[in-house]
Amino acid sequence: MKRFISLAAVLAVVYTSGCSNLSGEVIKPAVKGEMITYKESTSRHRILTVLWRFALIDAGSFSKDYHHFGTPAVADDGSRVFAGAFDGSVFCLRSSDGKVLWRKQTNGPAGGQPLVADGVLFYGSIDGKLYAFRMSDGELLWSYRMPGAVIGTPVLAGDKILAMTDVNSLTCLEAQTGKWLWGYRRPVPAGRFQVRGVADPLVVNKVVYAGFSDGFLVKLSLADGNLMNALKLSGDSDQFGDVDTTPIIEAGNLITGSFGQGIVALDPQNMTERWKFKAEGPSAVEASDGMLYFSTADGKVAAIRAKDGKLVWRFSSKKGQLSQPVAVGNWLLVSSEEYSLLALDRRNGKLVQIFNPGKGASAAPAVAGSRVYWTSNGEILYAMSLAK
Question: What is the Cα–Cα distance from 333 to 352, expressed in whole angstroms?
């Protein structure tokens, strides 16, 4: 991973010590051309204001090059926010002020975004376990040892919970008890590199769509995991063939993608191709108002039309990897290893605000109403208000 450039070389941020008074300023990069669309942006409009922050772990207890990939999760009523830490801690915080309501311990950092459903927090960890905590008090209801590290987000489908691991294995459990129901696994490609990340499964009408690092998208029966169809999305010459773009349904299309081939739209029934948009290493896709938004491995964010894959705009951050974009209102929020958190106008891709308290960020923010919850690579959880 590239080292982060110094904070002073990028922008100035008003930084007040303590737990609650921290605000990010809209400030031009010091280096001319650092953000090529900045001069065209509505740069004086601040849309993010920090309400409180919480240190998930002591700054001196982990590597300064650590990348935090766990996106926070928010309770349905917005009253609580949940976040994992590098030391394996799982926190439940009061969303109004960041007060710790409960804390539990696992044996590894958060792998992805936890899932909150039916009063339960389903939490996947790099320690190779999927945990179910009671949301109200953190009591451990069950845990299940998975075949590998859980680095995605669990998916609830009725009375079943599904999770993907980093060893090409999809597991389906009984959500109430953690009882194993079925598993599906594909071989890890031999002699070819894999990129970090997995595609979370998509469940539609008792059918599971799942992508794997051997370049295949598969269609499985939710009832028993039996294979219904398999489609190779990667090319034979792709150095990185991973299908890490979580499938979604948008505009009647099954949208997914592979690292080497980009975004593809398929017929959900027979998985035949409808259109393709060439991109290197597309992230998970954010869909809103007939548009698809995603970041790419070369530090760009793209907006394309869901119906035909035509490019509408493209933004370049110039440096560093970007997270999946998150759309909210007129804005698009994306984490950056170099600039921490970027806010774009999703209608045209213009840069609106940079919030950079240092350390950069790898995990996408979580949005609940007018609140944004975001964790930096410095293991600091921020709660922010979001302007309309």
Answer: 10
- Would the pLDDT of 38 be above 50? no
104-137 pLDDT, tens digit each: 999 988 878 999 999 999 999 999 999 999 999 9
Q: What is the arithmetic mean of pLDDT over 284-313? A: 96
Q: Indicate the pTM of the whole model.
A: 0.86
